[in-house]
Each structure stands twice: as structure tokens, then as C-alpha cells.
Amino acid sequence: MNKILIVEDDGVLCEELSILLQNSGYQTETIADFGQVLAQMKQSDADLILLDITLPGLNGEVLLQEYRKEKDTPVIMLTSRTGEIDEVLSMSYGADDYITKPYHPAILLLRISAVLRRGAKTGAVISYHDIRFHTARGSLSAGEREEMLTKNEMLIFRVLLDRQGEIVSRDELMTALWDNDEYLNDNALSVNISRLRAKLAALGMPDAIETRKKQGYLLQ
Q1: 103 and 134 together in one domain
Q2: Residue 200 in this model has a pLDDT that exceeds 90
Q3: What is the CATH number of the domain that holds 23?
Q4: What is the DSSP string of 40-109?
Q5: pLDDT tens-digit map of 72-98
């Protein structure tokens, strides 16, 4: 489940955004102290940041510029301004997208989904509980420990992660691997699931993958 950090000083709008995102399957985090925004952004393990351009005593574009010196987490700028210069500046400072208020909730969700998909293709780090999934390197990490995944294990974990909380059948996993030119027979799939479980256990999640007999697997 992806986590989104909301950097918005309007309390009502911030709460509305949190509810919208949570109802759409995202975890959310908000900023409480606007005197330490940059530090909180850097400390966050969010997969994407929604950043308002106008904050108390701060310019969101300058904040983004400073953040980009150390972090490459995807950022979508939110603003009530309509001038093209703000969009140009935001994108030049490292924004991944830019959306003006008021925005349609469905449009915002589509933009978020698109940015997260682009990030996954270019090597994003996706959060799963206290574990980080490094898509480019093909590994899972927690703290200082890292477990490398084989290509098959990585593909299986990605399918389960994309459908976290849902039962994924063995046939669906086999089809996903077939589509990626990584065909496995039924026994080999079981072996790969066992190895993936062992690596998750080594990172503190021994019960991450639940087997549902005659149904499939569930990533909790």
C-alpha cells in the first residue's frame, strides 16, 4: 500500500484529502509543524508527496527545490494559482506533476496513480509495512538488512503487493509470470513463494503471505 504525505496548511482541505486517499486504498501522513516542513518531508517514508505551493511563511516551489537536493520522491504540486509561470517553475524545480484547485477528486486520483506508475518503472522505492521494496534493484530491505530477490520472486511480490489484501489465485500468478516471459510450472511457483516467504520472514514479516487453500495467496 502506497503512502502519501500531504503538505497542506488548510485543515479542512487536508482532512478531505486524507479521507479521499484512504478510501482509495492509500495510507496518508500529514504535516503538523509548518516550522519544520522540509525536515519532516525528508524524514517521511512516503511514496509520493502532495505539496501546496502556498504555505505559512513558505514558498512551496523553493521548498521543493531544497528537497530535490537530497530526495527524489515523486511530488505533485497543488495550488489555487492559475498562472502558467507557476507551473513552469514547479516543473523546473523538480515537480512530477502540477494540479490547480479546485480539482475533481477523480482527476487527482488518476494523476497520483500515473505518477506512482511512472516512478515504479524508473526505480521507485515502495513501502510495505516497515519493509521497502526497491523496484530497480530488485530487493526488499528493513533497517540495515537487505534481501535480494530473483526476477521471479520480484514479479510475484509485485503482483501480490499491487493487490494487497486481496486473494490472488495461483493461475493469476502463473499468468503474470507468463506475460513477463518468466513462465513457471506449478511446483516451481510453490518453491518461489516459499523462498519469498523466507526473505520476508528475515525482514520481520514471517506471516506476510497467507495461503488460502483452493483459492490462492493473500499479502497482508
Answers
A1: no
A2: yes
A3: 3.40.50.2300
A4: HHHH---SEEEEESEETTEEHHHHHHHHTTT----EEEEES---HHHHHHHHHTT-SEEEESS--HHHHH
A5: 788 898 887 655 665 565 666 677 888
